[in-house]
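TOKENISED FOLD:
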Amino acid sequence: MVKIHNICRYVCSSSSYCGAFCLFRATLEYSAATILDFNAIITNLGRYNNMKKKFNIFFLLFVLFLPTILIVAPLISDNDTKSSISITVEVSALPTDVVINEVYFDDNLDDAAESGEFVELYNPTDHSIDLSSYRITDEETPGGGEGTFEFPSGSVMPSRGFFVIFKSIQPGQLIQPEDVSNTSLVQLFETIAPTSTDNDTRVADCLKIAGTSGNMWLANGGDGVYLKTPTDVVVDSVSFGSSPEGALAFVPTPGDWEGYSFERQWTSVSAFWHVDTNGDGVKKNPSPGHLQGETPEFGDEDPFGGGIPETPVINEVYFGELMTSGSSQYNQYIEIFNPTDKNWNLTGWKIETSLDTWTFNRSKWADELGDSDILLIWPDNDQSLPEDDQWPWAPTDDEAPWYEFWNNVDDMETWYPGDGFTHPEHNDYTNHELVGTTDLNLDKDGDYVAMKNTSDDVIDAVAWGTVSLPSEVSAVIGDQNVGKNHGISQNESLERIWQKTYPVCAFLAGPGVFHEPTPGWKVGEVPDEIQEQSVFDITAEAGESIDGGSSVDGIEIDGGTASQKIVITCEKLEKNPKDDEPNGIPAGLASGVDDAGLEFWHIQANGTVDPITITVHMNNYVVNTSTVEMFEWDHQNHNWKNLNGVVDNSSFYASVTGITAIDASVSEQMWIGVWGEVTSSDDIPGFEWLFIIVAIVSIGYLWVIYKKRRL
């Protein structure tokens, strides 16, 4: 007992939580006294009433003691400067240079040439590495009659990038370029001669070194692969089976590995070739452009969203000219993506190329670039030329509302006064244009795209080929000027590849790039921080009731009977999407209401829904219902409009219901915001008060029992 008293006295004297520890000390002391007296209870079984009384005391102490520990323990661990320090030392075996990462040495084809073989290289470092003129070979001894090939000029491998080197690309082989395209920072090469009829023009060529003979032909029973510098210094190698060097002990059985590859297994501290406990290679399904295991992190890397842009970005540019009429290139486009968690008003912003500058008109697209939204910018298209069924990547409203193609994708056109095109539906979106002096016409041989705000600051830019850049663009473009060796051919696009690690959204460029256009889609793995949260659809066929959502979802929608197929998407937002607008906070909020607001929802539909009843549930916190107000963002007046919502507090958590409309002639989307005063926001509302009441009652009861025993 003395020790308990002394320990608690020390903690009280050295901590700011004296009151909590006094209660903790009293609980410990009385618990100890009761436990010490427990033998007396056992030896006096005949005194039933006494034992029952002591059991009640012990139970009450337990009820009091457990919450005390739960409350006090976090305070000690979070604030006690005398806590112990944990030091972890890791010895890393991670590579510090480009490595051979995967070998596919026994393809699935029946041809004797084993055409489908490939070798994969990976850059695990935090910087790009130029492999121009580096060599790839399976020749163990120089002059041994096996092929040695070098990478072309401009072969720069970005951080966490891949090079995949095929022997050649043939119909029917297991891995095709389109299987690898658009998945990661991967470039594709082949070693077959450029003059061969089997050469695939979609990928880059690794040329045979002068003076060498033979091909890079991996023996199924064992071989070696070597990556060398231009001066023949070995950067990395792997040998297996019956190869002369035999670095790895396992010997593949011919035919047993057909259709499988041999790969490294990555962890946070190592990247060894994957073998089992007997030293035999572990078969893997070929996965070019991807790691087996976990992606290692750099020492100073923020794995939780570091490097995510804080403004809208140019996400993709298609500058090919697959379909033209005169000098106009109808199928080009520029894609803008908003990776932030707020809405952006692009009215007055500009898109600039070497040809012209176009300004965003105020419209439902320019005004409302919401979080995770994509905006496609096309030339002003006369869609009777060419025919719709020949259009490779048509504007999203070519044959149906944009919503039916891609969620959160809008499109606008470049336009200029005197434009002679007479689109049959032009009047439907006259106000959804960027106005310049000519039409969008990107130069495939060299051009740039810059996005500027209303102050003419360059927000983002990308350039390709040979082009003269304005000084303000050149000052910010950095490595987004991909130069002449960008590898983008006529039927490909220049696009960012999204990753959950650094580099989060680098443009994929280089001789080996094969990247198919993806208008309206993000490519790669988008970080969780910019993924839409709490998104769900409500669908009603024509004649059905528009009714969906629940208190669990946090929102309910009732839109009457659908006159056509209606799809409504509800997305819960983390914060006020209009907080940067001049009128982003509603006027006249009640006293005690935080400007930050409580609930925000982004609601989109593919047509008019009038009226629409919206109920928002304020889950996980208790509010002063007299202060709760529901608002809708007014697209035309640019402020929050009070919906005079009706509050329902019949359940533990309150909800608020408002009636409005989605008018497709104004906008097919809306923002809903709820403000009110919070009285408790814990996961278990009122837990602290409940504990205090139990504690007071328990202590009072114990005090009465104690006094009775003294008497």
